[in-house]
Write a structure and sequence with these properties.
With 57 residues, the protein is mostly helical. The protein has two helices and no strands. It holds the Pfam family NinF.
Length: 57
């Protein structure tokens, strides 16, 4: 019984130390997602906006 609990605990720790998005091992200062995934997921939506063209009304 103790071995099952210990293996479950080890698996939980391993899952907690991997990126939730890509599965890469996290750096000490990273939580939940790696810096690459964070940059992709939290990108500024306004940075890619273009000026709308007028219809000529």
């Amino acid at each position: 019984m103790i071995d099952q609990n210990r293996s479950y605990e080890q698996g939980s720790v391993e899952r907690a130390l991997t990126c939730a998005n890509c599965g890469q091992k996290l750096h000490v200062l990273e939580v939940h997602v790696c810096s690459d995934c964070c940059a992709e997921l939290m990108s500024d939506p306004n940075s890619s906006m273009y000026e709308e063209e007028d219809d000529g009304d």
